[in-house]
Amino acid sequence: RMQHISRRFNLNPAANHHLSAGGNRSRAGDTESSYERLAIHWYEWDLLGYVSGSNYTDCPGPDNHCGFDTHYPDYFPARLGFENVTQYLQNDLGVHVIPYINGRIFDKSIPRWAEDDAVM
Protein backbone atom coordinates (compact mmCIF):
# COMPACT_ATOMS: atom_id res chain seq x y z
CA ARG A 1 0.00 0.00 0.00
CA MET A 2 2.83 2.42 0.83
CA GLN A 3 4.44 1.80 -2.58
CA HIS A 4 1.12 2.65 -4.23
CA ILE A 5 0.98 5.93 -2.30
CA SER A 6 4.58 6.75 -3.26
CA ARG A 7 3.81 6.14 -6.94
CA ARG A 8 0.47 7.99 -6.87
CA PHE A 9 2.07 11.16 -5.52
CA ASN A 10 5.37 10.80 -7.40
CA LEU A 11 7.44 10.60 -4.22
CA ASN A 12 11.07 9.76 -4.84
CA PRO A 13 11.40 6.01 -4.20
CA ALA A 14 15.11 6.49 -3.45
CA ALA A 15 14.24 8.78 -0.54
CA ASN A 16 13.38 6.83 2.57
CA HIS A 17 9.89 7.89 3.58
CA HIS A 18 9.80 5.77 6.73
CA LEU A 19 6.06 5.26 6.48
CA SER A 20 4.95 2.74 9.04
CA ALA A 21 1.37 1.72 9.62
CA GLY A 22 -0.22 0.41 12.75
CA GLY A 23 -3.62 -0.05 14.26
CA ASN A 24 -5.62 -1.92 16.85
CA ARG A 25 -8.29 -4.43 16.01
CA SER A 26 -11.53 -3.21 17.44
CA ARG A 27 -12.58 -6.51 19.07
CA ALA A 28 -11.04 -9.89 19.66
CA GLY A 29 -11.90 -12.20 16.80
CA ASP A 30 -12.11 -9.49 14.13
CA THR A 31 -10.29 -10.19 10.91
CA GLU A 32 -6.80 -8.81 10.44
CA SER A 33 -8.10 -6.20 7.97
CA SER A 34 -10.77 -4.88 10.32
CA TYR A 35 -9.28 -1.96 12.22
CA GLU A 36 -10.92 0.48 14.56
CA ARG A 37 -8.20 3.05 13.81
CA LEU A 38 -5.27 3.15 11.45
CA ALA A 39 -2.43 5.62 11.64
CA ILE A 40 0.80 6.22 9.79
CA HIS A 41 3.81 7.50 11.69
CA TRP A 42 5.71 9.36 8.97
CA TYR A 43 9.44 9.78 9.45
CA GLU A 44 11.48 12.08 7.21
CA TRP A 45 8.48 14.17 6.16
CA ASP A 46 10.55 17.34 6.36
CA LEU A 47 13.33 18.49 4.03
CA LEU A 48 16.11 17.27 6.36
CA GLY A 49 18.17 20.28 5.38
CA TYR A 50 18.20 19.50 1.66
CA VAL A 51 17.21 22.05 -0.99
CA SER A 52 13.49 21.80 -1.80
CA GLY A 53 12.89 19.95 -5.06
CA SER A 54 16.37 18.38 -5.15
CA ASN A 55 15.13 14.87 -4.28
CA TYR A 56 17.45 14.88 -1.28
CA THR A 57 20.62 15.29 -3.34
CA ASP A 58 21.52 18.98 -2.82
CA CYS A 59 22.77 19.60 0.71
CA PRO A 60 23.84 23.24 0.96
CA GLY A 61 26.57 24.59 3.15
CA PRO A 62 30.23 23.79 3.68
CA ASP A 63 29.63 20.88 6.07
CA ASN A 64 26.92 19.07 4.05
CA HIS A 65 24.97 18.52 7.24
CA CYS A 66 21.70 16.96 6.07
CA GLY A 67 19.64 13.85 6.73
CA PHE A 68 17.68 12.11 9.45
CA ASP A 69 17.72 13.66 12.94
CA THR A 70 19.19 16.95 11.71
CA HIS A 71 17.92 20.54 11.70
CA TYR A 72 15.76 20.14 14.82
CA PRO A 73 13.64 22.02 15.75
CA ASP A 74 13.46 23.63 12.29
CA TYR A 75 11.12 21.08 10.71
CA PHE A 76 9.49 23.28 8.09
CA PRO A 77 8.98 23.40 5.22
CA ALA A 78 7.69 19.89 4.70
CA ARG A 79 8.87 17.78 1.78
CA LEU A 80 7.16 18.26 -1.58
CA GLY A 81 3.94 16.24 -1.74
CA PHE A 82 3.54 15.86 2.02
CA GLU A 83 0.35 17.93 2.16
CA ASN A 84 -1.26 16.13 -0.80
CA VAL A 85 -0.41 12.68 0.54
CA THR A 86 -1.63 13.61 4.02
CA GLN A 87 -4.94 14.92 2.65
CA TYR A 88 -5.41 11.77 0.56
CA LEU A 89 -4.66 9.45 3.49
CA GLN A 90 -6.89 11.34 5.92
CA ASN A 91 -9.78 12.38 3.66
CA ASP A 92 -9.98 9.48 1.19
CA LEU A 93 -8.75 6.56 3.28
CA GLY A 94 -9.58 7.68 6.81
CA VAL A 95 -5.99 7.10 7.95
CA HIS A 96 -4.48 9.39 10.57
CA VAL A 97 -1.03 10.82 9.80
CA ILE A 98 1.40 11.47 12.63
CA PRO A 99 4.56 13.28 11.50
CA TYR A 100 7.61 12.19 13.46
CA ILE A 101 9.44 14.85 15.43
CA ASN A 102 12.22 14.33 17.91
CA GLY A 103 11.29 16.66 20.74
CA ARG A 104 14.38 15.95 22.78
CA ILE A 105 17.02 16.92 20.21
CA PHE A 106 18.28 20.36 19.21
CA ASP A 107 20.72 20.39 16.30
CA LYS A 108 23.68 22.52 17.38
CA SER A 109 24.88 22.99 13.78
CA ILE A 110 21.88 25.02 12.58
CA PRO A 111 22.14 28.82 12.56
CA ARG A 112 19.37 29.10 15.14
CA TRP A 113 21.62 27.53 17.80
CA ALA A 114 24.06 30.46 17.59
CA GLU A 115 21.33 33.08 16.97
CA ASP A 116 19.48 32.05 20.13
CA ASP A 117 22.76 31.96 22.07
CA ALA A 118 21.90 28.43 23.20
CA VAL A 119 24.05 26.64 25.75
CA MET A 120 24.61 22.99 26.59
Provide an overview of this structure.
This protein has 120 residues and is an alpha+beta fold. It is built from three helices and three strands, in the order αββαβα. Strands 1-2-3 form a three-stranded mixed sheet. It starts with a helix and ends in a 5-residue tail after the last helix. 12% of the residues are buried. Mean pLDDT is 74; it is low at 13-17 and 25-35.
Compact overview of the structure:
The protein has 120 residues and is of the alpha+beta class. It has three helices and three strands. The model is unreliable at 13-17 and 25-35 (pLDDT under 50).
Supply database-style keywords.
120 residues, 3 helices, three-stranded mixed β-sheet, alpha+beta
Q: What structural category arises from helix and sheet content?
A: alpha+beta
Radius of gyration: 17 Å
Uncertain residue segments:
13-17, 25-35
Coarse morphology: globular
Biggest beta sheet attributes: 3 strands, mixed
Head-to-tail CA distance between termini = 43 Å
Give me the side-by-side strand order of the main sheet: 1-2-3
Write the H/E string, N to C.
HEEHEH
Portion of residues within helices: 10-25%
* Chain-averaged pLDDT: 74
Number of strands: 3
Number of helices: 3
Proportion of residues in extended strands: 15-25%
